[in-house]
Amino acid sequence: MCGIIGYTGFEQAAPIILDGLTKIEYRGYDSAGIAINANGKINLVKTVGRVQALYDRTHDGKDMPGVCGIGHTRWGTHGAISERNAHPHMSQNGKFILAHNGIVENYTRLKADLLAKGVVFKSDTDTEVVVQLLEANYTGDFKEAVIKTVAMLEGTFALMITCADYPGTLYAVKQNAPVILGLGEKENLVASDVTCLISRTKNVIYMEDGEMAEITTEGIKLFDFAGNPKEYEVKTVDWDIASSEKGGYEHFMIKEIFEQPQAVRSAISPRIKDGKINFGEKSLTAEDLKKFNRIIITACGSAYYAGLAGKFAIEKLCGIPVQTELASELRYNESGCIDEHTLVIAVSQSGETLDTLSAIKDCKACGATVMSIVNVVESSIARASDFVAYTYAGPEIAVATTKGYSTQVAVLYLFAVYTAAALGRINSGEYTKLVSEINAIPEKMETCIEMNGGIECMTPLFDKAEHVFFIGRNTDWAVAMEGALKLKEISYIHAEAYAAGEMKHGTISLIEEGTPVIAVCSNMRLQDKTASNIIEVKARGAEVTMVGPKGCESEKQANHCIYIPEMRDVFAEIVTVIPLQMLAYYVAKARGCDIDKPRNLAKSVTVE
Ligand code: M6R
What is the rounded distance in angstroms from the CA atom of residue 546 to the CA atom of residue 558? Predict the structure, then answer.
């Protein structure tokens, strides 16, 4: 979604801000802008489309002198995608310039008041209200204008503001949207995303809700919304720049697919010591786990499908009922069943997905304990949780998640085995076996990637299709759903996943001569069952590609085969998903799609 970057220092700001905007392009956006505050004059350039247009229009930033400024990528919510609605927005007298992430919920009323006072608006956004309010509340003191303005706002807002009367000064405000401050050498930065800071500094301050910061070259001052000074803690980011660059690959997505064995290793190995799973000091103990009679896993999109893989593993190994709930639905659940005996596991790569964040806040209010499985350290979901297990996937840039998903699944598998042992549901022999199987996952993933080195040649089976159906049972159904999502989000081919046994209850009527069906068949326990579903769809004309180990029953029935290494059902999803990710990637490539930044999508979804 929207991204913000701000810089104040000793170097020319525009090239640094443009570079920062490039690094947050992956979040998804439709327009972009940059403003430089130089000696009391604001220079503003905005564009619809890519950040490259800002480079072109400013000669790579060289045309914009000055050492302080802000930049923004917009994912429109209020008002059409247009230059006038792009951020930053300027106040009527040209003194204030502001970029905003989030939604000002009471903007209609505030706008009506300003219109009544004769303010002329240049955009259709909720954001412009804020910048006009800054001007209205300004009596010569920048900080005071920010305090007065923020007190009038309701909703979610990460704001970055500069004022022509204060060259070299930025104000950042945080309320329910991420803001990270970067402390450099004679320069300081602000961003919505740590990936655009790491090329300049690894020393960061994660702002909390209800805080505002004054950023100058001399330093950073933190205040609450009333303007009272606050202490801050500087943390060090351990992500390196190389991991947020393409490193010779054509797209981030394929790089991240191939990075999965290593990413999963990073998620697993720090948590297995001497054959024992250890989630660290601040994790749920056996005593904590005993008090729960149900687990709810909540998430959105692929993270939800990762949660589904976790459900199968936890239920099978621990015998505890696990519900998976879409966070956007859980938020409005009125069952009243969530209480202090409920463990809620929130799964999120970005840690900023608003639906997931709101769902866990509501569950906590009902007495539930929240554990989150999150990639981005110190993200909002991590901070709102009672316990956090990081996935250590490193920066994930492609909008379509791959290593984010597989590391989430890996942590859920570990959690399943850890909980089963803590509750005495498995004996020590079974525990040792399960731990060694988890340890072997990265190698199986490597083998799977190797086995599918030639998968690109299968793209003609799918790249002209209007619809592709995915079928599978149990754990394979969980993977089928993730495979279908991967294909549709990046190739724009309609893809649906069905529980294989469910097709004959309605969906089979969609099958006609030549309809491509992908049958996921890694689950050896259900081989024969899925094989009969393959026969059913083939009889109606489907062209079936099975994904399973060599020699399985489905191999005999399918028209085409994609092979994977043999795995035990309980841990199969993490490997089985790989060829589906690769296939989606190559199909999207054959169709000439914008793979890393699919249309209409954003990497972190910070609106409801
Ligand atoms: O950052 P999160 O894991 O909370 O994001 C949740 C979904 O938006 C995300 O998994 C989305 O479905 C992916 N882009 C799909 O590839």
Answer: 6
Amino acid 30: pLDDT: 85
Q: Is 303 in the pocket of ligand 1 (CB under 6 A)?
A: yes
- The confidence score (pLDDT) of residue 242 equals 64
Sequence-distant contacts of 428-437: CB under 8 A, at least 24 apart? 432/275, 434/317, 434/570, 435/272, 435/275, 435/276, 435/277, 436/275, 437/568, 437/571
Ligand 1 atom with least separation from CA of 401: 16
What is the DSSP-derived secondary structure letter of residue 63? T
Cα–Cα distance measured from residue 530 to residue 80, given in angstroms and rounded to the nearest whole number:
47
Q: How far apart are CA 362 and CA 338, in angstroms?
A: 10
Phi, psi (5° rounding) for residue 374? Answer: -135, 150
Catalytic residue annotation:
2, 603
Ligand 1 center from residue 401 Cα (angstroms): 7
Rounded Cα distance between 266 and 51, Å, is 33
CA-CA distance, 202 to 10, in Å (whole number)? 18
DSSP label of 137? T
Cα 275–chain centre separation: 32
Mean pLDDT per 10-residue interval, the chain, length 608 residues: 91 96 82 93 93 95 96 85 92 96 91 95 94 97 98 94 96 93 95 88 94 96 97 87 75 95 95 92 89 95 97 95 94 81 96 93 94 92 94 91 98 97 95 96 96 95 96 95 97 95 87 95 89 92 96 92 91 96 97 90 74
C-beta 307 within 6 A of ligand 1: no
What integer pLDDT is reported at residue 604 of this predicted model? 75
User: Of 153, 160, 142, 218, whose CA–CA distance to 24 is shortest?
Assistant: 160
The answer to whether the beta carbons of residues 123 and 84 sit under 8 Å apart is yes
Q: What is the pLDDT of residue 606?
A: 72
Residue nearest to atom 8 of ligand 1 (CA): 301
> What is residue 468's predicted lDDT score, i.e. its pLDDT?
97
**Are 46 and 128 spatial neighbours (Cβ–Cβ below 8 Å)?**
no
Distance 600 CA to ligand 1 centre (A): 13
SS3 273: strand
From first CA to last CA, the distance across the chain in angstroms is 12
Report whether residue 350 contacts ligand 1, using a CB cutoff of 6 Å: yes
* Per-residue model confidence (pLDDT) at position 58: 96
Atom of ligand 1 nearest to the CA of 350: 1
Ligand 1 pocket residue status of 301, Cβ below 6 Å: yes
User: How many angstroms separate the CA atoms of 429 and 124, rounded?
Assistant: 64
Q: Cis bond leading into 88, ω under 30°?
A: yes
pLDDT at 241: 67
Q: Which amino acid is at 264?
A: V
Question: Rounded CA gap, 492 and 232, in Å?
Answer: 45
Q: Amino acid letter at 569?
A: D
* pTM > 0.90: yes or no: no
From the CB of 419, is ligand 1 less than 6 Å away?
A: no
Give yes or no for residue 399 CB within 6 A of ligand 1. yes
Atom of ligand 1 nearest to the CA of 381: 4
- Rounded Cα distance between 141 and 137, Å, is 9
What's the pLDDT at 466?
Answer: 94
In a mutational test of the pocket of ligand 1, which residue from 253, 302, 352 has the highest number of ligand atoms less than 8 Å from its CB?
302
Measured in Å, residue 132 CA sits from the centre of ligand 1 at 35
Three-state secondary structure call for residue 551: coil
Ligand 1 contacts CB of residue 400 (under 6 A): yes
